[in-house]
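dumping this here before i forget
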Amino acid sequence: MKNYIYILVIVLFSCKTHIIEPERTYIPDNKHGERLKKPPVYSKTNLYFIRHAEEDGNAVPNPHLSASGKKRVKLLERYFSHKKLDTIFTTNLNRTFETAKGIATFQGVPIVYYDPFKMSFKAFFKKHKKSNSLIIGHSNTTPNFVNGIIGYPKYSQMMEDNYSDIYRISVDGNNYVYDELTTIEKEIQKMEDAKLSPKELKKVLKERKRKQKEKE
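structure:
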């Protein structure tokens, strides 16, 4: 009898966790076409969108971050330490919350839970149009969140092994919306390059170019 009650409690607790289903995606109609080609010089809005860091490979409904995921979080903490954030939004799962926690602690900002399948992306954008926020989601929800805001399916669903992409939506002084895609590795590299003198940077870029040609 005790074993039966124990199993029942586990099942009921598990049902409270909203598990993201990979096949559920949101692709808006293509109505607006391309946006600006260059980032705005001045921006009153910076919304950053990322996928959670690598999760533990064990087959459990709500996994925690793996060792690799924790290392990636350190890179994200370093990157966002140079960004002003007002709020961090995450889905209500261990892997998204654990990705957000260190960044939120450093910035001293709240973590707010959201459900990407029960919200209006346009309404979210309107509400947070004058803020700087980080939105952490999943491989099948993050690109669709960006698509929902810009109004057309520019970005495809992320590959399962892709934990690097960082999407940014900005609004300039004339209310033009700009979106861009980069990676955490590229951004950290830029931060490292910025520490170099012009002479050192020239040498590093030359060596990097040489190695790239060898790969090709």
